[in-house]
Amino acid sequence: MWKEYYHAPGMYDFDYSLRRLSMDPLIRTNMKERYVDVPVRLENDRAVVRVKAEGDIEKPVFSVMSDHNEEQDVIFEHIRNIFQWDKDLNDIHQFFQQTELSMLFHQYQGTPIVRDFNLYDSLMKVIIHQQLNMKFAYTLSTRFVQTFGEEEDGSWFYPTPEKVASLEYDYLRNLQFSQRKAEYVIDTSRLIVDGELDLQKLSKLPNDEVLKTLGKIRGIGPWTVQNWLLFALGRDDLFPAADIGIQNALKKWWQLDEKPSKKDIEKKSMEWSPFRSYAALTLWRSIEG
DNA sequence: AACCAGGGAAGAT
DNA sequence: ATCTTCCATGGT
């Protein structure tokens, strides 16, 4: 068992992040004790890591602990990247003070981008969640993981690309996937196993190159690429204009009768570049619960 | 019952 | 290039 502490440079609302993480039934969170258990895939091994809030929004301190004693540095580095503790959210807050979203950022301070735990898992989840209402979306992804993935210490690991590539479409249809969705999930996994798609390599490329590569794959459109860039890679400047949640939030924020058009959204959101992701997160947050 | 859901492919202009 | 229509289900 090891335990390490870390201080973030600016404000950081970890309790909000926990609330978001707790929306996913596959992720074990505890709001009262303020921790989340993060499943970590290693080279040929797995670890479950507990990340716990020890401070508050103004003075964020975190503890990271695990009883997996090998590759401790790799694990800690991975956790730091997921939660992006080194990004100074005071700078983001400062930036939005000169925009029309200043009030919103004042109300919801220190909203971080918490990345999905794994590049491949994230892509599968985004494909599965396309167009579905949140409740059914989580039902589907939970069934998918609990049927084909693996559990360890109460935490669920997504199935590997190899495992998913070996499935028949009917296995997913039985879980109430549509035929299309079953094809998207399995075929994309097969591309990865065959070496035709390398997510690690993609993660080092600029957004437009990722869009060019991922967008060619059947079942992956602009919304899915944008969400993957935002949540898997944690990129700062994504604004999913096609997203219903974003549209609803802007409708409310701009006091419109109808949802604003994709084009209007894209144009206006340019004022929030290069930190559009934070605008998106904060807008989502403004219409939650 | 009708319409929507944190879309995308395929077909039609 | 841009616009419809269809895909499949569960939720409200």
TrEMBL record:
Keywords: DNA damage, DNA repair. GO terms for cellular component: cytoplasm; protein-DNA complex. It catalyses: Hydrolysis of alkylated DNA, releasing 3-methyladenine, 3-methylguanine, 7-methylguanine and 7-methyladenine. InterPro entries: Alkylbase_DNA_Glycosylase/TA (IPR051912), DNA_glycosylase (IPR011257), HhH-GPD_domain (IPR003265). SMART domains: ENDO3c (SM00478). GO terms for biological process: base-excision repair, AP site formation; DNA alkylation repair. Belongs to the alkylbase DNA glycosidase AlkA family. This is DNA-3-methyladenine glycosylase II. It comes from Tenuibacillus multivorans.
